[in-house]
Amino acid sequence: MNKFAITRPHENRKAQELIDKSQRKREPQRTLRLIGWIGTTPVRGVCTTCAEEFRISQKTMTRASEAEESLKSQFRWHICR
Length: 81
Ligand SMILES: [Zn+2]
What we know:
By secondary structure, the protein is α+β, with helices and mostly antiparallel strands. It has a domain at 30-81. It is 38% helix and 21% strand. The termini are far apart. The mean pLDDT is 82. The structure holds zinc ion.
């Protein structure tokens, strides 16, 4: 019988607890919800966390993909109130 070969599961459990705690503390991920379209182009979005609205001006609106990208970047850089 070699007692030194026994693994120490309590250390793993401790590490796992720390991981669980840090994951629980993390804030829910905010998401951008598109709420307005002109045709198939998204022109309005809202943050699901702070309800701030983002808009695309008709001038800058060219393609649907670019409009969505613009909304996404506005959303990415805003600070939740
Ligand atoms: Zn927000």
